[in-house]
Amino acid sequence: MTPLINALQGGINSLPPIWLMRQAGRYLPEYQTIRKKVPTFMELCFHEDYATEVTLQPLKRFDFDAAILFSDILVIPHVLGQMVHMLEKKGPILEPIQDPGFF
Question: Which of 36, 48, 83, 92 is surrounded by the most beta carbons within 10 Å?
Fold first, then answer.
């Protein structure tokens, strides 16, 4: 049984289980290699194989007990139809909502 599963079931571990938030893995060379395979960050979020790979990269490199699934909060407005653009060295830009009844 993994330390995380044991802790979730109320067990006691000699050390608390740890995991790495995905953002902290963006410095990894493995992440940068995958990121270069798609033109936009949002495409990385929606590519099943690449998103899976970058989720697992910290587990392959470090002795973590779990991973947080790779995604981004901006997936939500995107799937709701609001245009989202990621500008290099600036960040996300969301197009204005034209229809007040959008939500």
Answer: 92
